[in-house]
Fold this sequence. Notes:
Blueprint: H1 2-8, E1 28-31, E2 34-37, E3 43-45, E4 48-54, E5 60-68, H2 73-93, E6 100-106, E7 116-123, E8 128-129, H3 139-158, E9 161-162, E10 171-176, E11 181-185, E12 192-193, E13 199-200, H4 214-218, E14 220-221, H5 224-239, H6 255-258, H7 261-282
Antiparallel strand pairs: 1-2, 2-4, 3-4, 4-5, 5-7, 6-7, 8-10, 9-12, 10-11, 13-14
InterPro entries: Kinase-like_dom_sf, Prot_kinase_dom, Ser_Thr_kinase
Enzyme class: transferase
Catalytic activity: L-threonyl-[protein] + ATP = O-phospho-L-threonyl-[protein] + ADP + H(+); L-seryl-[protein] + ATP = O-phospho-L-seryl-[protein] + ADP + H(+)
Amino acid sequence: MADYIRKFYGHKSPLDISMTPTPAPRNAIQIGQWSLSSARTIGVGGSGRVGVGVNKKGDVVATKRMNVSERNGNLLRGRRSVVETLTLWVTAAREERIIRLVEVITDDPNANNKASDIWFVLTPFTPKILHEYKGPLKAELVRSMTIALLQALPFLHDNNWIHGDIKPMNIGIHKWDLDQTSIVLLDTEDAIYAPQGIVTVTSGTKGTVGYIFFKRELGEFTTTTDVWAVGVAAIWILLGRHPWQYRVNPWREGEAFEGIRWLFHRHYDDAMKSIRQCEDKGK
């Protein structure tokens, strides 16, 4: 694990489905063919509220509810375009490790209102996400998860896509043990198409502090930004803590940010020492 992180960081300075509530007339919202349980929102993020939907055939999906307004309309249309495009690629390749769009539902199909709600209906639904697992966990389990995540990335990268926001909240889990680890990469709406393999994005516009590859904030970046994020997630579950436990991003431009980069280096040095100790215990 230490060698894996060192490759990308080289500074020289020392729901189990049975837990899903069955929608009932008194606590369900009907959206198209889907009964959405109002009893349980399973996730809330910057891009929407995530819940569970079930239809009469017993199909279970994840639903993401977002509010559309004049201010964010273009943003949501862009996100919809990304997830629709990825769904076409993923479906054609029968790739089960990337979330897919089933349909989009709105409560204002004629766009008559200044504000409305829109639902992305997504599959496959995963009963758990990695964020629900609290470390420290055994190195063998961490290794199994890391391998599964790295094996999910080539489909995106080989087709010139960068996920851009891999973190424990965006990793769905079907099964995770020493024999088999089955995961799904979630929240692909902000994925980045990179036909040239290199992307330049304005600093601080996307991604999650703590999981953003530092090169992404300093200018051009590549698919290695996803690999870095997988490594950080692996550290989080192995050690039970994140190496950088601050909300501020030290890789933004400006003296205030540059002045704390030494602290970033120190925390990652400490994390790598802890990883080596875990490796030594496993020998």
